[in-house]
# Entry
Amino acid sequence: MQSIFITTFLLVFCSLNAGSYEHNEHPKHMKAEFSFTLYQHLAELENRTDLLISPASISLALGLLQLGARGNTSAQLEHALGYNNPRDQRVPTLYKDGTNSSRETVAQLACALFIHTGTCLSPQFVRYAALWANDTLRHANFSEPNRTAAQINEWIAANTRDGDTNSLSLETIDSPLNQIALVSTMYFKSTWQRKFTFTDTQPLTFTITEGFTLKVPTMYLRAEVNYGEFLTDHLEWISVVELPYLGEDVSMFVMLPSDKRASLAQTERHLTAKIFSVWSSSLRRTRMDIFLPRFRIQNHLDLKMVLPALGITDMFDPTLADFTGISEQGSLFISEAFHKAKIEVTEDGTKASGATAMVLLKRSRAPVFKADRPFNFLLKQASTGSILFIGRLMNPTE
# Structure
């Protein structure tokens, strides 16, 4: 069975402070814009490595903070996220719509606030948080850091169904000033609508940066898919293919520079929500041969390195943060913001062999989409417009 397993976590330690900002775009477009902007800034920081983030998980956590933000802290969050004040309950509804499961597909967002014993929260914030994400509030004792870290990581493991329980490193959890830890997760598991054939997977050449080549396990599929070729403003051709999962609500879009000499770092910086919207709506049904490497990516990122580039600065400053909507007990601010994401694209762990791709290519007159060099990919949920995951593959063996 062809399957994909993806997990992601965001951890924010709070000692916090926020305003009002008007935005009239459709919520789906606003969420996509935040996703691409966030990715662009992270891609510039990590410009030579595999990269994966879950914008859905990050924006869920920031949205929960926005519920309790006031003043300029709130204005910065609203401007970056593109949301009107989430206390209007419109945004939480989008996230609830984006959380569904069936026998074949699971897409689940979860969020929790771990509150230090004795910390008094605003009753209004508690009500908003319950609407934003169910089962949100958890009691913790930050004076026992090891126990609290274990409690948080157990919650993460339970909500991501991650058997190996790769724990987050909670570096400052033993600080006596900690009062709140905010954690959000995104879990997705599904099978392809059209499965790759196990016996056609074989080692093929993948060209990494600077022209070096590797042999990597490459999957093969001949199918009718949505496909298109597009010319960017910088006169670079990009091939785009959509690979849907069962139920067709979530699809993986793979974006491959047509010129093998093109730098992915150069082409992806022009990838925006508007451009992707045009591309994805312009794809046409095409029967073709598809070659996609098996790969897995795991990232652990410090969001304090990128959120200020989106204009989110005050919440990290003890003198400027205003989270009085969460608690008036002390001056809360964000001391740490971590994000962990993991994706695995496999044929259920099967090592396959069989007919060579060269033979298949010679037998076929169909167009070919061959991801044998660095490419971008994203998982989009059609019903909500949410970008569940976005990333790039530079080296399938790392």
Summary: Residues 27-45 form the longest helix (19 residues). The domain at 198-294+349-393 is CATH 2.30.39.10 (Alpha-1-antitrypsin; domain 1). The chain has two domains: 3-191+296-344, 198-294+349-393.
